[in-house]
Amino acid sequence: MKTRLIATLFASAALLNASAGVQAQPESTMSISNKDKTIALLTSIETGDQQAVGYINANQYVQHNLAVADGLAGFGELLQALPKGSAKVNVVRAFEDGDYVFTHTEYDFFGPKIGFDLFRFEQGKIVEHWDNLTVRSAQLNPSGHSQTDGITEINDRHKTEVNKALIANFVETVLVKGDYHKMAEFFDGDNYVQHNSVIADGLSGLTHAIEVMAEQGITMKYDKNHTVLGEGNFVLSISEGRLGDEPTAYYDLFRVENGKIAEHWDVMETIIPKEQWKNSNGKFGNL
């Protein structure tokens, strides 16, 4: 019943907004930050919170999850398909950069998953959504870290643009161009915490993982970085490339400390073939 209720609420909101046009929001609603609206919307998948529905612009909701149809109708169909009472949502981290909010979330959503979600706002309403999802690992990585644990506190907000520039340079220089001999410039030796489920801590752990993949004939290629977003000491990079023979979306979250990369979380998702897309917006459209 819960998932059907949520879908009905979204459909109702769409009809109300379409018929009433743009209306002034109550002051209590307008005073809520876009970050809090995003957390409320994601959490409503589990709770059925009705107010969170109003944070979406029902007349303009562009969907970039290729397995979901466009607009609120597509989101409603997804919710209806969920097994009853199965949805669980835990937003671990949330960040705001201009009109964008991005989150790092634990889901039980057709099985346990880890995901990054990115929302774009216009005039206080959500108008666009991108995401990247992967199955949650049942085991800790070689250094004993999960895919979501670690530091959550945001600081150094005055360094946001500097930190974004650092990560943009790292992604372009090391990941896209493959200049691995320059990798050490971006790290403070082995003072680096890794949350990838198969890679150990430290620059040494990362270097070893790259060597092992090469020995096994596994290629991890970043072809293009689409955007870099951040708040303070946290920066998210969204890129595309290939993992082995599969086209892949790379979402990498970095924590920066004293001008160096200090911590890393990621989600890699295979991009489904175009004939399976349920919308035509593209995985990286408008980024």
From TrEMBL:
It comes from the Bacteria. SUPFAM superfamilies: NTF2-like. InterPro entries: NTF2-like_dom_sf. Residues 1-24 form the signal peptide. Keywords: Signal. Gene3D superfamilies: 3.10.450.50. This is Polyketide cyclase. It comes from Shewanella colwelliana (Alteromonas colwelliana).
